[in-house]
Write a structure and sequence with these properties.
0% of the residues lie in helices and 32% in strands. The chain is mainly beta. It has one domain (1-59). The strands form 2 sheets. The chain has a 3-stranded antiparallel sheet with strand order 3-4-5, with no helix packed on it. A two-stranded antiparallel sheet has the order 1-2. The chain is globular and about 35 Å long. The relative contact order is 0.24.
Length: 59
């Protein structure tokens, strides 16, 4: 996914069971995605956010 801050960085999140760290995702009945845990870039723009029901919630 592209970083929602607008910096243009592509964020790759691992969702396979064997990965560490790993993110879980779900899609609700309306087709809106959610991610767990939060996404925190520790370099570059250093964005920290949740993706919940298709919306970015900044930390």
């Amino acid at each position: 996914m592209q970083c929602p801050c607008g910096c243009g960085h592509i964020i790759e999140l691992l969702v396979i069971d064997e990965a560490h760290p790993r993110w879980d995702y779900s899609v609700n009945a309306s087709g809106l995605p959610s991610l767990q845990p939060s996404v925190w870039r520790n370099s570059g723009c250093r964005s920290h956010f949740w993706l919940r029901k298709g919306r970015i919630q900044w930390v």
